[in-house]
């Protein structure tokens, strides 16, 4: 016996040893025969001592035989089973009657009882096998009946398409299987091609004619693709056009990964199609009005859900592709929770795009050196991407046009984009380019054709500048007329041949929901990459570099009459050259911008604010630009502290690096002490040997657990 105590309540657990008997279990052939013979012997022995009339035993056996026969008939048992059970009752009662009339203790009685028991057991075993086989046969017959009903429809489909392919393509097929889609929107025909070297593309070239011959609805196709081997063909026949309906982006915001694929849309059979971009770049082509911008937002939504990806966006058209993913962070959450932007960096100008691309190149080249030991340990030549070392995805709206532009500014960007595409595959930096058309000029660059293996063509029924044969070389039977609806087109990946697809509709309110739902999921750039990226990355959300987001508000305030905007000064209302104003009322965009920068500072340690306690005004103009310069100097000091690495640095060394700001050593000492108190830095040593190390490079505490 073992006694255990849990939550102050004693519970006794009895441990049984030896043979465990289940008295509720039914009898088998052996135990049933043993029970019957021992029962008959006991009745005969006790009945002899009690002078029981022998006829009573025979009467009981007769009643038992009748009862079991009636029960078996209700269960629809076989005749041999009913006979075996009735015979067992009659033989047992007959032996008991004979033993009562003679002597149950004689060797003759005992021997005959043993023979009777063996016979009962053998008979029970035999009828048991028979009943099991009979039951299996009944199940199989039911399945065959269902199969006959299904196969009747499939045989009709197979015969119809054999005739159709013979009539349209002049090829005799042998259909091996017809698989109905679970969505009830079509079926797939698996057929064997005739001998003589016939290939599947003989049928694929005639997809449009086959669809017309089958009288399929508009938007439905009969698309041929390679089978399991080169002598087989698969014909996907769509009977319901699900691409015509506008389907909203799924509300399942569960985590994704670069390794498991990012869903970009759905096929005509309603199955999701994913893009696998660990080593691939992507190209999305779509003319105006085809739903390309919506497709970009669907892509950004998938990237935002990923736990091992950071998204950088370049959109020289006023940053419109990335602004909806920054705006929720600007407004904040209703409960006051800090919300991180859905993208990690947004560039809307050539200058900012150059900083982003330069940082990407520095990160990639530095990763190649710094992570050699990690790759050797993992026995791979690809950087192991994870939440701790995220992949960087550069989404460049109309990036293909940048690559073919003849403008000097665009040429410089194009050169850096091509360097990123060419050099940084193994280090986890890939690109998604968009273009307005699938033309020879866009696809003329060998780098794009070679690296952008994931390709999307959103047609929206537009035929101008959409050469599908150039975008999907080798694909047969793709016709723009098959995708006339907005948000539909063709998508091909190395894992899935080019075919019709549709993308979900995503609206600003849902983008906001996704940003809020995934805010805590975004990874941070690893320390090695952040060090390589330098101040350009660390200060990407500085007020000076994000002021363009609210330029429209400043212009509106400057144009308003004095009585409508009493807080605005004369002329341009530039925040860096105006006196400090009282706090804006709730809901004001300037207040939202200030709150956004405060949250960004608190989360990313980018532009720490100086002490907000009131100070006497300086002589002369109280320009907020002075304060911004102080913040810039403080951020530059923090960048130098991070760049110092595990060796750390001191106030004097940082002061020498900030000579252009004119910051005194005493001011830097105060910053270092504040950072040490806040946990941003760790102080090592004392006196003249004092140095400070950023917390990302600080040695682990001796009592901290070792990592595996």
What would your notes on this structure say?
The strands form five sheets. Strands 11-10-12-13-9-14-15-16 form an eight-stranded mixed β-sheet, with helices on both faces. It is α/β, with parallel strands linked by helices. It folds into five domains: 29-142, no CATH class; 171-240, no CATH class; 279-529, P-loop containing nucleotide triphosphate hydrolases (Rossmann fold), CATH 3.40.50.300; 541-565 and 584-607, no CATH class; 623-708, Winged helix-like DNA-binding domain superfamily/Winged helix DNA-binding domain (Arc Repressor Mutant, subunit A), CATH 1.10.10.10.
Defining traits:
four-stranded antiparallel β-sheet, alpha/beta, single chain, disordered C terminus, 18 strands, Rossmann fold, 24 helices, 5 domains, elongated
Radius of gyration computed on alpha carbons: 40 Å
- Major sheet size, sense and barrel closure: 8 strands, mixed
**Unreliable stretches:** 1-25, 554-589, 604-625, 701-708
Number of DSSP strand runs: 18
Spatial strand sequence of the major β-sheet: 11-10-12-13-9-14-15-16
Number of domains: 5
Kindly identify the CATH topology of the largest domain: Rossmann fold
The overall pLDDT, averaged over residues, is: 79
Report how far the terminal alpha carbons are from each other.
Answer: 41 Å
Which structural class do the helices and strands define? alpha/beta
């Amino acid at each position: 016996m073992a006694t255990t105590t849990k939550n102050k309540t004693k519970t006794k657990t009895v441990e049984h040893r030896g043979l465990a008997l289940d008295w509720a279990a039914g009898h088998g052939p052996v135990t049933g025969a043993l029970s019957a013979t021992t029962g008959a012997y006991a009745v005969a022995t006790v009945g002899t001592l009690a002078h029981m009339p022998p006829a009573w035993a025979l009467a009981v056996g007769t009643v038992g035989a009748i009862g079991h026969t009636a029960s078996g008939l209700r269960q629809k048992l076989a005749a041999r089973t009913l006979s075996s059970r009735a015979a067992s009752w009659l033989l047992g009662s007959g032996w008991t009657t004979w033993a009562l009339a003679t002597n149950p203790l004689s060797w003759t009685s005992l021997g005959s009882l043993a023979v009777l028991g063996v016979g009962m057991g053998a008979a029970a075993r035999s009828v048991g096998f028979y009943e099991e086989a009979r039951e299996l046969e009944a199940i199989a017959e039911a399945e065959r009946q269902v199969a006959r009903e299904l196969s009747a429809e499939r045989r009709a489909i197979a015969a119809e398409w054999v005739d159709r392919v013979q009539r349209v393509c002049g090829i005799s097929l042998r259909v091996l299987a017809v698989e109905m889609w679970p969505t009830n929107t079509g079926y797939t025909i698996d057929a064997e091609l005739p001998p003589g070297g016939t290939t599947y593309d003989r049928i694929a070239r005639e997809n449009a004619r086959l669809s017309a011959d089958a009288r399929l609805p508009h938007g439905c196709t009969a698309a041929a693709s390679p089978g399991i081997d080169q002598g087989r063909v698969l014909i996907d026949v769509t009977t319901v056009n699900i691409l015509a309906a506008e389907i909203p982006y799924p509300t399942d915001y569960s985590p994704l990964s670069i390794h498991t694929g990012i869903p970009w849309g759905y096929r005509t059979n309603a199955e999701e199609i994913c893009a696998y971009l660990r080593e691939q770049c992507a190209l999305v082509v779509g003319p105006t009005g085809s739903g390309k911008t919506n497709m970009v937002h669907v892509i950004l939504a998938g990237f935002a859900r990923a736990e091992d990806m950071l998204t950088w966006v370049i959109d020289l058209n006023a940053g419109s592709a990335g602004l909806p993913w920054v705006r929720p962070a600007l407004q904040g959450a209703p409960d006051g929770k800090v919300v991180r932007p859905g993208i990690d960096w947004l560039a809307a100008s050539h200058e900012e795009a150059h900083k982003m691309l330069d940082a990407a190149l520095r990160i990639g080249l530095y990763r190649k050196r710094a992570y050699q030991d990690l790759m050797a340990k993992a026995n791979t030549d690809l950087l192991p991407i994870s939440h701790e070392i995220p992949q960087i995805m550069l989404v460049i709206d109309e990036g293909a046009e940048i690559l073919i532009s003849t403008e000097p500014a665009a040429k410089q960007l194009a050169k850096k984009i091509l360097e990123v595409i060419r050099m940084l595959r193994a280090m986890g930096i890939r690109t998604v380019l968009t273009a307005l058309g699938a033309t020879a000029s866009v696809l003329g660059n060998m780098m794009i054709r070679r690296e952008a293996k994931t390709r999307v063509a959103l047609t929206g029924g537009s035929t101008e500048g959409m050469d599908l044969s150039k975008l999907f070389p080798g694909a047969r039977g793709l016709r723009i007329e098959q995708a006339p609806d907005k948000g539909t087109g063709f998508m091909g990946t190395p894992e899935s041949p080019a075919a019709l697809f549709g993308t979900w509709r995503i609206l600003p309110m849902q983008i906001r929901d996704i940003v809020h739902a995934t805010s805590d999921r975004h990874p941070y750039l690893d320390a090695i990459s952040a060090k390589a990226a330098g101040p350009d990355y660390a200060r990407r959300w500085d007020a000076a570099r994000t002021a363009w987001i609210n330029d429209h508000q400043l212009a509106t305030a400057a144009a308003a009459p004095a009585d409508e905007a009493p807080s605005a000064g004369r002329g341009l209302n530039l925040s860096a050259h105006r006196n400090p104003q009282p706090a804006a009322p709730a809901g004001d965009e300037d207040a939202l911008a200030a709150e956004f920068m405060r949250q960004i500072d608190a989360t990313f340690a980018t532009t720490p604010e100086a002490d907000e306690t009131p100070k006497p005004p300086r002589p002369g103009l109280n320009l907020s630009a002075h304060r911004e310069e102080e913040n810039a100097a403080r951020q530059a000091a923090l960048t130098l502290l991070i760049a110092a690495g595990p060796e750390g640095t001191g106030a004097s060394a940082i002061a020498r690096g900030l000579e252009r700001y004119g910051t005194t050593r005493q001011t830097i000492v105060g910053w270092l002490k504040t950072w040490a108190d806040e946990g941003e830095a760790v102080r090592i040593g004392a006196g003249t040997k004092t140095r400070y190390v950023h917390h990302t490079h600080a040695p682990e505490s001796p009592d901290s657990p070792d990592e595996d």
